[in-house]
Amino acid sequence: MKSFVFRFGLVLAVLVAVNLLSSFLFFRVDLTQEGRYTLSEATENLLTNLDDDIHVNVYLTGNLPPAFKRLETSVRETLAEFQARASQDLTYRFIDPTANPDSKKRAELQTQLIQKGLSPTSLISNTDGNQRTEQLIFPWAVVSYKGREQTVLLLRGNRSSSKEEQLNQSIENVEYELASAIRRLTIREKKVLGVAVSYTNVEPLRLSDLLATLQEFYDIKLINLQDSRDLVGLDGLIVPKPDRAFSEADKYKIDQFVVNGGKALFFVDGLKIDSVGREGTYAQPLDLNLNDLFFRWGVRVNNDIIKDLSCALIPLNVGDMGDKPNVQMLPWRFFPLINTFGKSPIVRNLDAIYSRFTSTLDTVQAVGIVKTPLLMTSQYTKILKAPALVSYNEARQQPDPRTYNDGVKLVACLLEGRFQSLYTNRILPGDPRAAAFKAQGAAAKIVVCTDGDLLVNDINYRTNTPYPLGYERFSKNTFANKDFVVNAVNYLMDDNGIITARTRQVTIRPLDKIRLREDRLSWQLLNLLGPTVLVAFVGILWQFVRQRKYA
């Protein structure tokens, strides 16, 4: 009796000690192979430095198909991890916008969500009886902080992938999308991002959508290089679609900015195309006086233009039907759709990108510089050297795929390392710039893209308002141009930032549908009778052991 009391007391003491210890020590163990429940270090730092409460409303819930239920479960699990790590009270609620039995109130809620920009998605599926059903879902979340809100699109992925792959990509992006929204709301001190506008004729309205988005993260400063003594005070620099040669003085400012650890993005063209006629216009080489600087950094922008069989459509009058023009949407190979990406968090799970009059980019040797390809064409390309004839009537012609054999071409590249100055051994001791000159300095990052139009949005000239960046007004599709530029800026400017969460990988482990259909009854019987048989077997075995022991 005493030994029993001692053992019981010992067990009770251990349980009490474990509970007391758990109130002071917190840890979780992620046993999944890909670390599915492990937050990135940057996300944890973001959550542990919150200074006020955060609430999240998730509208992706209800009677969802199994694939979307996985996405909902992933959102729920991610928010639970956020809640466990947050230094302040982080709460969340799942709301089904289609669940209210009162049709009037249900319609009011859905209208409110649509007015906030939370556009619904229609799911169309066929039941076993070949009946077609349509279901409306809202794959969105809204993060609230200090009276401000940030919407989060939870359904993201490359539309050329299968539905299962798109949903898996959305699951991989859940942490990044939610953490990015929290960062936008809680950012305290913004870095300064300069936009060099002195060498471009692009009107500000055609950069407005991108700049409005970047203002949520950074202080935007329009820079006139001629009037600036240097670029000190900037954390990053964007050079958007320059169309004339840089002076040596301004090129020197950019060189020293990068050598001193600055982050820069260049969206430049290899050829100059003023306008395109029906019969054609010759695109001429564009000399920006940056070739030697790019070459020193490890890349070369070529004076050519890419024709790609993977391309966008343009409206073209192919003839008259009676007294009216016959306008059809035809593929124009001079507008490639970029859907081949490198291995970088900047472009991971990115949708296709809309480009215009794109040139090729080559990499050259640069000591100490790591080059990461970002954007590539399809393998079915044809390269035209300058001067290149660009004609709208080319869309009328049926291309011969055998002539599009130039292969995959690089369009954008990430460069990282300690860059060597172009002006090494060229600055004389008596030069006023000699005192501040550096031949090599801190680690820097650069992105070079050979399409100046990639970050330029179109304009609705009827209302004189900008379209979203990446919106193609003829097909009414929105491509991932803005996502690419914002991701690239965040990667360059936010050291060890939350964009590292985009490297998360969730492996798809699909069931064999053929075996599942053929062996369905066997598996159902096993799941139904297996536990009962197992319990009965254990009971019989236990009874046999007792009889042997006490007989």
Automatic annotation (TrEMBL):
<feature type="transmembrane region" description="Helical">
    <location>
        <begin position="6"/>
        <end position="27"/>
    </location>
</feature>
<dbReference type="InterPro" id="IPR055396">
    <property type="entry name" value="DUF7088"/>
</dbReference>
<keyword id="KW-0812">Transmembrane</keyword>
<protein>
    <submittedName>
        <fullName>Gliding motility-associated ABC transporter substrate-binding protein GldG</fullName>
    </submittedName>
</protein>
<feature type="domain" description="ABC-type uncharacterised transport system">
    <location>
        <begin position="190"/>
        <end position="488"/>
    </location>
</feature>
<feature type="transmembrane region" description="Helical">
    <location>
        <begin position="525"/>
        <end position="545"/>
    </location>
</feature>
<dbReference type="InterPro" id="IPR019863">
    <property type="entry name" value="Motility-assoc_ABC-rel_GldG"/>
</dbReference>
<dbReference type="Pfam" id="PF23357">
    <property type="entry name" value="DUF7088"/>
</dbReference>
<dbReference type="Pfam" id="PF09822">
    <property type="entry name" value="ABC_transp_aux"/>
</dbReference>
<feature type="domain" description="DUF7088">
    <location>
        <begin position="33"/>
        <end position="144"/>
    </location>
</feature>
<keyword id="KW-1133">Transmembrane helix</keyword>
<dbReference type="InterPro" id="IPR019196">
    <property type="entry name" value="ABC_transp_unknown"/>
</dbReference>
<keyword id="KW-0472">Membrane</keyword>
